[in-house]
Sequence to fold (293 residues):
Amino acid sequence: MVTAALGLQIPSPIGSLEAYIGAVNLVPMLTLEEEQSLAKQFRDDGDIDAARRLVMSHLRFVVRVARGYAGYGLAQGDLIQEGNVGLMKAVKRFDPSFGVRLVSFAVHWVRAEMHEFILRNWRIVKVATTKSQRKLFFNLRSSKKRLGWMNNDEVNAIAKDLNVDPKDVLLMEERLSAHDASFDPNPGSDDEQPVAPANYMSDRRFEPSEQLEALETEQNCKEQLVAALQGLDERSRDIVTRRWLVEPKETLQQLADKYAVSAERIRQIEKNAFSNLRDLMPEAITLPSDFAG
Fold:
């Protein structure tokens, strides 16, 4: 059983997929009037039974969408289950006053959940992280006119059609053509198998030269930071030190009470101090990860 945003339980496609598809195809379709009435009951009264009927009547639609992603090598049952989650999210947000059918509204949510699942599971390493990469991941194959590597004209044409950078097109083509490689060798493989990275990649963490370089870099950064702090005025230096360089760290309000100013003023002084430190040691200093200035 699947439980999602609405707290509903619907049949799961895990198990006999054919039986599941047969079952959802037996659920009667809703007329426009029935759909509007159920949607209003759920929106106005929180009627979970009405929401359940809306979901159940559209499960066959999720199956149809999932079939369009069969070429990614993932189990149809898993895709359908993710799509069902998207369908329930759509029902939760559906407003019948918009005058559109639920299926038109839900298609975005269903596909979005399937897309996220595909991107998480298609490769060990995620192949698409930016908006342009995601667009290319789902459209590049269908945009190619022929098999094989693309030439410059084809790359530029696809980049123009999808409104992305040609470099992103080339990068995605390379990623889609690559395959996952096991880091550790397969004990059952023969000599003709490619050599696993574990056999030729060295671990340089404990190399004396690497450790000495890291130690010298750290020491150099500390010396630069000390020198840069001396370039700040006394109040700014004290605020940065008490906020980030000593334990326990003081809060903005504690420093505001000490200097008889507002906490916002302390934050501004702190922000300006970090800006000055960047100028004094641009290659060595980075803002703390939890500094929101």
Summary: The chain has three domains: 2-121, 131-177, 208-280. Strands lie at 2-3, 9-10. The first strand starts at residue 2 and ends at 3.
